[in-house]
Design goal:
Elements lengths: L1 E5 L5 E5 L6 H7 L19 E4 L3 H4 L5 H6 L11 E3 L12 E4 L6
Parallel strand pairs: 1-5
Antiparallel strand pairs: 1-2, 3-4, 3-5
Bound molecules: FE2/S2 (inorganic) cluster (FES).
């Protein structure tokens, strides 16, 4: 599947990846700057924050209570489409997934 990551300066990175693992894993494996993911997916850092564009945001399972809790600690303003990329499992249904990266993760 293809996933698109749009940095705060509008530079877009497109990755072709298998539909498995998390968006955070795919992004960090490709060294996409803008996703720090300090905790490695343990949901304790909130430095993997992304803004998910429609129609994909609506296709995602809703955030867990733990994810909602960590979203209180994002460095850039939280928005209704804010998610932690370590919690977003890539599936075939997400082909074309487009997310905006926040201006800062710290
Ligand atoms: Fe730390 Fe997602 S990688 S909360």
């Amino acid at each position: 599947i293809k996933i698109h990551l749009v940095a705060a300066d509008a530079v877009e990175t497109t990755l072709s990846v298998k539909p498995k693992g998390s968006l955070m894993q795919a992004a960090t494996a490709a060294n996409v700057s803008g996703i720090a993911a300090d905790c490695g997916g343990l949901m304790t850092c909130a430095t993997c924050h992304v803004y998910v564009r429609e129609p994909f945001a609506a296709r995602l399972p809703p955030p867990s209570a733990e994810e909602l809790g960590m979203l209180e600690f994002t460095a850039s303003p939280r928005q209704p489409n804010s998610r932690l990329s370590c919690q977003l499992e890539l599936t075939q249904d997400l082909d074309g997934l487009t997310v905006d990266l926040p201006a800062k993760q710290y």
